[in-house]
Amino acid sequence: MAVADRRTAEAGTSMSRLMERAGTAVADAVAALGHGVSALVLAGPGNNGGDAFVAARVLRQRGYRVAVLDLAGEGGSEEAVTARSAYRGPRVAADDGAIDAAVEAATVIVDGLFGGGLSRDLEGAMAALVTRVNRARVRSRAAPHVVAIDLPSGIDGATGMVRGVAIRADRTVTFECRKPGHLLVPGRHYCGKVTVAEIGIAAATLKGLAVTTFANEPDLWRAHRPKLARGGHKYDRGHAVAVSGPMTATGAARLAITAALRTGAGLATLLSPGDALLVNAAHLTTVMLARVDDATGLTEALTDRRRNAVLLGPGMPPDAATRAMAEAALAAPAAAVLDAGAVVAFAGDVAGLKRAVGEGAAVLTPHAGEFSRLFGGEGGDKLARARAAAAASGAVVVFKGEDTVIAAPDGRAAINANAPPFLATAGAGDVLGGIITGFLAQGVPAFEAAAMGVFLHGLVATRIGPGLIADDLIDGLRAARAAFDML
Ligand SMILES: NC(=O)C1=CN([C@@H]2O[C@H](COP(=O)(O)OP(=O)(O)OC[C@H]3O[C@@H](n4cnc5c(N)ncnc54)[C@H](OP(=O)(O)O)[C@@H]3O)[C@@H](O)[C@H]2O)[C@H](O)CC1
Ligand SMILES: [K+]
């Protein structure tokens, strides 16, 4: 964003104009809360504080009651200093008693302490102030509405992580586009409703920045959605296959392969070990069934080049035999999706996985535990971890969770935010693997197939609502798939 600001300034829109528009957008959001607003504006040392002073000035000009708690100290950018001196209204003394009284009296608190320039954990007086505001926000009667400028102070805009402590906002007004910190958890949960104000950074300027981080929304992959050709043959829509687990663990792959079919693959086959053939046969109608017992059998099955997308891992143990099958899938011309056991089977040998992936289209779909077992590490910057994993494995990595990150080896990454909490249920991950396989079978490139698959998965769950089980996702896919085509 700093680069965008600089280029915009070079193109003739000064930083002070941007700040004026940013602060005015915040004032608009506060004014929209209705009459009787009495705003306490918290202004920090950087340009976020500059925006806060502009907002305070504009609100006062419009006749609202405003007081500013100025925590700028000495210095700040030229624009912030100008904004500060242009505000001539009441200020709150920076002592505990005065702050408590001001917080008590406010109906709205505007958080302009820190935005994109947060560089370390909040400590001391700043941390204490944030805690005070958070306490006031949950007090039962007449709790103030908290509006954050750009980001809730204490949230790291690049990672969504809390730096020590962070403001809990009801609303966040950001500028030009959402940042990762608005989409990744926990940051997302601190923002409240996020609105994006245009402040005059031209789309061309943003485009010229070669952005590689995206919100996972239709603009990202709309053009890649499979199109149904009139008079098309079922083989035009691909042939998805999935490998079944052993006799006691067959359901996961059946869910997945059925999801692939519902996603639009023209044909679907479940490849089953001999001991599980009967149980699989008893449960399948439209999905075809064939016997495959090991890596040699899978290689043989995938010599039929019409079978152009393969999923394995659901219901499979993370052992040497599974790894050998995964290597067979990756060596075949079909695009491959590795989930669950097939991901963990490579634990400790990411280099070996990368060799196996080679130049082929491959997608890995680990949840946090599987991700750690394969790539190491625990917690921290999810976006950076997903990107590093994609680069290290040569595969598209779908790092699952409430804020699933889809990362490609070329550095692109998308953050998903449409998954409802009730989607975290047994079998849901198997359905996701199947949906992605279904898109791959229809010829969608790996990154887009994974990204649209994750989105469709969230969409179908949201349409069903709480109480869903994975089987419902399969049923719901039919209508959701149609809605997805209209996005
Ligand atoms: N295009 C846009 O999006 C525009 C955004 N604007 C606003 O500008 C801010 C970003 O402004 P910036 O000055 O870069 O950063 P901040 O205001 O967030 O804060 C920087 C100052 O805060 C100090 N700092 C950082 N972390 C801490 C901390 N934990 N405790 C105390 N102080 C901290 C930092 O000090 P350093 O020592 O690190 O230098 C700075 O003094 C953006 O969020 C928008 O609100 C523009 O107004 C318009 C264009
Ligand atoms: K802020």
From TrEMBL:
It comes from the Bacteria. Residues 1-207 form the YjeF N-terminal domain. Keywords: ATP-binding, Isomerase, Lyase, Metal-binding, Multifunctional enzyme, NAD, NADP, Nucleotide-binding, Potassium. Residues 217-484 form the YjeF C-terminal domain. One of its GO terms (biological process) is metabolite repair. (6S)-NADPHX binds at residues 47-51, 115-121, 150, 252, 315, 367, 430. It holds the Pfam family YjeF_N. Binds 1 potassium ion per subunit. GO terms for molecular function: ADP-dependent NAD(P)H-hydrate dehydratase activity; ATP binding; metal ion binding; NAD(P)HX epimerase activity. Transmembrane segments: none annotated. Gene3D superfamilies: 3.40.1190.20, YjeF N-terminal domain. The keyword Nucleotide-binding applies. K(+) binds at N48, D111, S153. Its cofactor is K(+); Mg(2+). AMP binds at K400, G401, E402, D403, T404, G429. It catalyses: (6R)-NADHX = (6S)-NADHX; (6S)-NADHX + ADP = AMP + phosphate + NADH + H(+); (6R)-NADPHX = (6S)-NADPHX; (6S)-NADPHX + ADP = AMP + phosphate + NADPH + H(+). Its EC number is 4.2.1.136, 5.1.99.6. NCBIfam families: yjeF_cterm, yjeF_nterm. Catalyzes the dehydration of the S-form of NAD(P)HX at the expense of ADP, which is converted to AMP. Together with NAD(P)HX epimerase, which catalyzes the epimerization of the S- and R-forms, the enzyme allows the repair of both epimers of NAD(P)HX, a damaged form of NAD(P)H that is a result of enzymatic or heat-dependent hydration. HAMAP family: NADHX_dehydratase, NADHX_epimerase. Belongs to the NnrD/CARKD family. Homotetramer. This is Bifunctional NAD(P)H-hydrate repair enzyme. It comes from Acuticoccus mangrovi.
